[in-house]
Amino acid sequence: MHSSDPNDAMHQNNSRPLKRAMSTRHLVMLSLGGAIGTGLFLGSGEVISQTGPIGAIIAYILGGIIAYMVMLCLGELAVQMPDSGSFGTYANRFIGPATGYMITWLYWLTWTATLGTEFTAAALLMQEWFPHVSVWIWTIIFAALIFSLNVSSTRLFAESEFWLSLVKVITVISFIVLGLMAIFGILSFNGMQSAPLFHNLTANGFLPQGVWPIFTTMLIVNFAFSGTELIGVAAGETEDPAKNVPKAINTAIWRLLIFFVGTIIVISALLPPEMSGLNAQGVSSSPFVTVFTFIGIPHAEDIMRFVIITALLSAANSGLYAASRMMWSLSVQKQLPSVFSKLSKSGTPIVALIVTMFGAIPGLLSEQFAPETIFKNLLGVAAFTMVVVWMSICLSQFNFRRQWYKQGHTKAELKFAAPLFPVVPILGFAFCLITCISMAADSSMLAGFIGCLIFIAGCYISYALLYKSKPTE
């Protein structure tokens, strides 16, 4: 590799590097916070209704394994080269500068698209409580709140994310524990005389729709695990990355697997498939609300509405953080004007934060134009771009390790090495590629898919035009 610290080159361009203010506790909650969101509270029902309970369990376990492979690759890179540009910087060095540029913009787009959906969804939920207040007023209030948390300081951002995520984690754990008590008949469930146990899981056969839906729902499932890669972005602002990053990756993935699979088992054991699907009638159709209500928890719908709003705001909080760091990184690498790497007194990239907030505007428009269509397509765009970013992480690690060996280094010299090289990056890449292709097969996501391909082509073209005229440094 180059110098001992790959950040040196980057930081010479910037008067002040970003502060290292995050601990393992913050990192784990940041990745859990990024991942536990609408994908779990609202999307899990969709997967069950399409694949059947056993299919959903297989899909989430598969999703977890893919996420784990990608995170192991990311862990190796992030520990060796902790950097807030993360996979954009790695793609730049180990795939090619044009791809690094494209990946950084793509990841920025992922979170910016998601930001719009998070604010809109939270505002629509608030409207169920306050029907007379317009959605856009709530959107502005939430946007202002998240913006101020991000601008203040990295430490305050990490701390706020920790507590917002904790609300979700406690909800999921309570849901699984209470659900299991109901399954075994310790708690009464919807007036049933006997314990429901697990016969619902296979009531319609093991895979009622066959194997294919497991693959078609992979995009929803992978999107549910997206957010875990925030550990890589935060590595540049973490105390002692060599110790904290691998620990956070292992903790986060295992917890997510238990949360997702546990949730699916509880929903499927307690509710017949036709009740676990979503009819897009707001929170009341979330399988979480149904189960809590049947167990007899008062105000279940209000509690879950509060939790889902917290989940959405927490995901927006993480998203704004990640997207602004990507812009900062492009600016530091002189691929955007230097104003974007300008830091506030508290050490946050202020201009990048402001510009990213404007990216949430499509979300604000969705009240006027079909919110369902906009929401579904933005979700598709976010999921697809996320999977492309994951592919770049696997390829970067594959190329990095080959380069490492070529230079005469050994695996033992790495501070953290992804196991089973080259199997892990190759499998991770292949599974992500299959997921991308599955999006093209879904007619409702085709517009988003084509849009993403155009955006990727646009990134390469703009890179070529930008750097044709300028000799690279």
TrEMBL record:
Ordered alphabetically, the record's keywords are: Membrane, Transmembrane, Transmembrane helix, Transport
Membrane is among the record's keywords: yes
Q: Which GO terms describe its cellular component?
A: membrane
Q: What GO biological process terms does the UniProt entry carry, in alphabetical order?
A: amino acid transport; transmembrane transport
Q: How does it sit in the membrane?
A: Multi-pass membrane protein
Where in the cell is the protein located? Membrane
Supply the InterPro entries for this chain: AA-permease/SLC12A_dom, Amino_acid_permease_CS
Give the superkingdom in one word. Answer: Bacteria
Span-the-membrane segments of this chain are 26-45, 57-78, 90-109, 129-151, 163-190, 210-231, 252-271, 303-323, 343-365, 377-395, 416-440, 446-467
Which residues belong to any copy of the Amino acid permease/ SLC12A domain? 26-467
PANTHER family, per database record? GABA PERMEASE, GAMMA-AMINOBUTYRIC ACID PERMEASE
Q: What is this protein called?
A: Amino acid permease/ SLC12A domain-containing protein
Q: Which organism is it from?
A: Acinetobacter gerneri DSM 14967 = CIP 107464 = MTCC 9824
